[in-house]
Design a protein that fits this description.
Blueprint: H1 2-18, H2 22-26, H3 36-55, H4 75-95, H5 98-102, E1 104-109, E2 114-119, H6 120-144, H7 154-160
Antiparallel strand pairs: 1-2
């Protein structure tokens, strides 16, 4: 459910962002990650980071925090990578089992500066919560720029998708 919501909301955000001139997407609007483009990059970076821990796939080639805003400078390439990541997340969630979710994951957290162990179910929840948090920031930037993504309520988005 959350993977489907994530993919649909990302589709809507990128469609709205594509209607803006590139300069508007890159304008520093004093959001946490500066611009809309920076925020969308950070979203992809976070998904890449967590999915590399969950499925062993590719890690992001740049560090976190503000460095994540430069993950993909080209908007069209960023949009393509977003679609591919959403497909990866959707495919992966389709394979999850209660047994896997009941286990723990241990990794080195650059943010915490140490090795961390947490329940996988909590971390999967965090993956989707992180997406929702930063998509909210992107949504606010799009709204301020005069764009509309349509409804964002989970029960309406999944009905429409």
């Amino acid at each position: 459910m959350m993977a489907a919501y994530n993919a649909e909301m990302n589709r809507r955000l990128f469609a709205a962002a594509a209607r803006l001139p590139d300069a508007a997407r890159r304008e520093n609007r004093r959001a946490f990650f500066g611009s809309l483009h920076g925020t969308l990059n950070h979203l992809l970076w976070g998904d890449m980071q967590w999915m590399s821990r969950f499925d062993g796939g590719e890690k992001p080639p740049v560090g976190g925090g503000q460095a994540s805003t430069g993950l993909e400078p080209d908007f069209d390439a960023l949009a393509s990578k977003r679609v591919a990541m959403d497909a990866r997340i959707t495919e992966w969630t389709g394979r999850l089992s209660p047994e896997w979710l009941a286990g723990d994951l241990t990794w080195y957290s650059g943010a915490a500066g140490r090795e961390v162990t947490r329940p996988r179910a909590l971390l999967v929840t965090h993956l989707f919560n992180h997406q929702t948090h930063h998509r909210g920031q992107a949504h606010a930037l799009l709204t301020a720029a005069g764009e509309d993504t349509g409804d964002t309520d989970l029960f309406l988005v999944l009905d429409d998708a």
